[in-house]
Design a protein that fits this description.
- The chain has 91 residues and is mainly α.
- It has one domain.
- Helix content is 53%, strand content 0%.
- The chain is flat, with a radius of gyration of 20 Å.
């Protein structure tokens, strides 16, 4: 069996990404599959070879875009951002 640890260390060093771990790539893949492709966690579990969706349930929150406006309202309030005038004129 081939151990890629040394190759990974060399590649991340060359790319100036010393803190990047191989598992980080898996995490990014899962997050983007849910965010961008709207992949269900059951499908994600199957893609990753898990027999149960339990291991990928942590990614289900990334698909909760229906709540993003609440977060934006809070951020606007905290940072005192004025409502966008172009949006208020169209309503």
């Amino acid at each position: 069996m081939y151990d890629i640890s040394q190759s990974w260390k060399k590649a991340t060093s060359k790319a100036n990404l010393e803190g990047l771990h191989r598992h980080d790539l898996r995490h990014v893949f899962c997050t983007k599959m849910v965010e961008k492709a709207n992949v269900d966690v059951l499908v994600l579990a199957d893609l990753l070879g898990h027999s149960s969706p339990k291991m990928v349930m942590k990614y289900r929150h990334t698909g909760n875009h229906q709540y993003s406006h609440f977060v934006q309202q809070m951020a606007d309030s905290v940072f005192k951002k004025e409502p966008d005038e172009t949006n208020s004129r169209s309503t």
